[in-house]
Amino acid sequence: RNDDKFVLDSYTNYKKNNISFYQLCKSKLSESISDPLYDDKLGDYIISLAVPIIYNKTFYGFVGADISTLLLQEISDNHHSYNGNSKMTIISNNGYIAGKTNKPDDIGKTVKEVRASRNESTDDIDTFIANIQKDRKSTRLNSSHTDISRMPSSA
């Protein structure tokens, strides 16, 4: 999407750790959501979604879409649970921030990076991320209770 227009574009730089999203979908045979990736064309971070096309157990390709983290940031900024006393952080399966209430500069950084830059403890981050990856519905980071809404990820 570019302003108010949808744009159809072929894009050849769909890679994660030098593995193309095509190969990732083919090997996993399941949907994937990337960590926030910086897109040079857009000049912003995106989340890439990829869903394999499978018929009779044969992989034929994948359908993908990119979501600008600007949308996720807007959702985070407009989150008003608990009478406006809560904040939202959208975290990828690998611990990257995709949106955070009033903190758009944190997008694309890991939770561990952000906490370390603020001289906050990072002792429990690995356990926190492991709980997200294990599909736990709730976990704690320090003394803060965190509810998790899980989305499929890209391994």
Notes on the structure:
- With 155 residues, this protein is an alpha+beta fold.
- The protein is 24% helix and 30% strand.
- It contains five helices and ten strands.
- A hairpin with a 5-residue loop joins strand 7 (89-91) and strand 8.
User: If you average the pLDDT, what whole number results?
Assistant: 77
Content-based structural category: alpha+beta
Number of helices: 5
Sequence stretches where pLDDT stays below 50 over 5 or more residues? 149-155
Q: Tell me, what's the shape?
A: globular
Number of strands: 10
Share of helical residues: 10-25%
Q: Largest sheet, described in full?
A: 4 strands, antiparallel
Percent of residues in beta strands?
25-35%
Quote the distance from N terminus to C terminus: 27 Å
User: Order of SSEs, N→C?
Assistant: EEHEEEEHHEEHHEE
What radius of gyration results from the CA coordinates? 17 Å
